[in-house]
Amino acid sequence: KYLGIIFDLDGVLCSTDEYHYEAWKAIAEEIDINNFTPKDNNRQRGVSRMESLEILLEKSERKFTDKEKLILADKKNQRYKELLNNINSFDLSDEVRVALNTLRKAGIKLAIGSSSKNAGLILERLGLGNFFDVVVDGNSITKSKPNPEVFLKAAQMIGLQPSQCLVVEDAISGIEAGTAGGFDTAGIGGVMSYPKTTYPLRDFSQIMNIVFAN
Ligand code: G6P
Ligand code: MG
What we know:
One of its GO terms (molecular function) is magnesium ion binding. Helices cover 44% and strands 12% of the residues. It is globular and about 55 Å long.
């Protein structure tokens, strides 16, 4: 049934969450928000940089102009990119590496569907720069998750219908996007028990069971 898999990147293939959190927290402190927590950061999963900033600014009493917002987002990204320099191919877990290679050998199309504009850089650092059949990221979409655009575009580019693809996600926004696009979803971490998640993934290797059993 599943001829293609569309993977979210952050929180699925690699763990960039702590870097996003650290970079956003530094921005928060600069504008006197001292109660930015991992829980707030969790709500930023899967949503674009500017929408993530809005989530952070909910905690401020001040109003910010569009220009100020762009400066803050840009500052965050500069800090975040410095932190991404810590990533290398050892950050790709054996579990993920084995699953990707096994699926590839079985002829399954493999795509990335990410909201991040840094997806290319992260894939490069993980040693996956040329691995995927298709990469659709924050640079090639107009609406970020929970809008299904990123996944629909990826499915179209690998030449498959949504019903033939599995979406792998760690974010509520991503499960919503997959569901809205007509995809079955596999959920990692916090979204394992989310009601709209089709398959909970306790560990990454279970993807192979799902794909080969269906
Ligand atoms: C991923 C992360 C989000 C982040 C978004 C944009 O979806 O889960 O937390 O806001 O990418 O990332 P970027 O690298 O473009 O700032
Ligand atoms: Mg994610």
